[in-house]
Amino acid sequence: LSPVCLGSLRRAASINAEYMGKEVEQKIDEHDEKSTNSPISETPLRVVVSGAAGQICYSILFSIGRGELLGPNQMIDLVLLDIEPAMGAVKGVMMELTDCAFPIINNLIGTCDYEEAFTDADICLLIGAFPRKKGMVRADLLKRNAGIFKGQGEAMEKCAKKTCKTLVVGNPCQHQRTYLLDLCTKNSKREFHSNDPVRPTPCV
Fold it and tell me: Which 3 state secondary structure label does DSSP give 190?
């Protein structure tokens, strides 16, 4: 192609990209405006987050409060689950969330009791787990965290809604997800996902 033709193509591509960018921005703005103007739902969903006193959860809980998990119009009952020694830190996190006055948080609950946490749960984010330390192999981590997920899985099977959706983050997440599937999917429509970017798992 001649330099003139190449120049024309470049200008056309630039104009098209600019137009498409404006069109996408307009659609996003329209969606945000619609979401903002829509009323907040009257029926809350119960969201359980384990390991609530930990660093990972601390960076996630405020995003949940802003509506980045289920949308800015979905009311939630937010349950912060952790071990008993960490309940002091959980109370501190609850105070910070309360200070934020997020409009979608209907109830804020902190507990170390599995059955209390998972009763009528709609969404579970299982983040809390023992971290892998120096000298530990994967089998050591699995054994250490198996007890945690066994207790949680039994409580979910007994107390959570049959349509509950769960994301397993605590490592090794693939193995723990399979373990929970064995415990919790009898006669239910529950879904289990694992946060594994290397080996992504479809919902079951």
Answer: coil
* In the predicted structure, residue 83 carries a pLDDT above the cut 50: yes
Is residue 81 helix, strand or coil?
strand
CA atoms 155, 158, 160, 162: torsion sign: positive
CA 147 to chain centre: 22
What type of residue sits at position 187?
N
Token pair listed for 96:
């910070």
C-alpha–C-alpha distance, residues 202 and 140, integer Å? 26
Chain segment 124-136, per-residue pLDDT in tens: 888 876 666 676 6
- Exposure class string for 162-200: b at 16+ Cβ within 10 A, else e: eebbbbbbbbbbbbbbbbbbebbeeeeebebbbbeeeee
Per-residue pLDDT, 23: 59
What pLDDT does 202 receive? 42
Q: Region 166-193: what's the mean pLDDT?
A: 59
Residue 168's beta-bridge partner residues?
126, 194
Comparing CA positions, the residue from 152, 149, 126, 163 lying closest to residue 45 is 163
Which of 50, 53, 58 has its CA nearest to residue 89?
53
Q: Is the pLDDT of residue 201 over 70?
A: no
Number of helices and strands (H, E) in the chain?
A: 6, 6
In terms of pTM, does the model score above 0.85? no
Residues near 9 by Cβ (< 8 Å), separated by ≥ 6?
A: 1
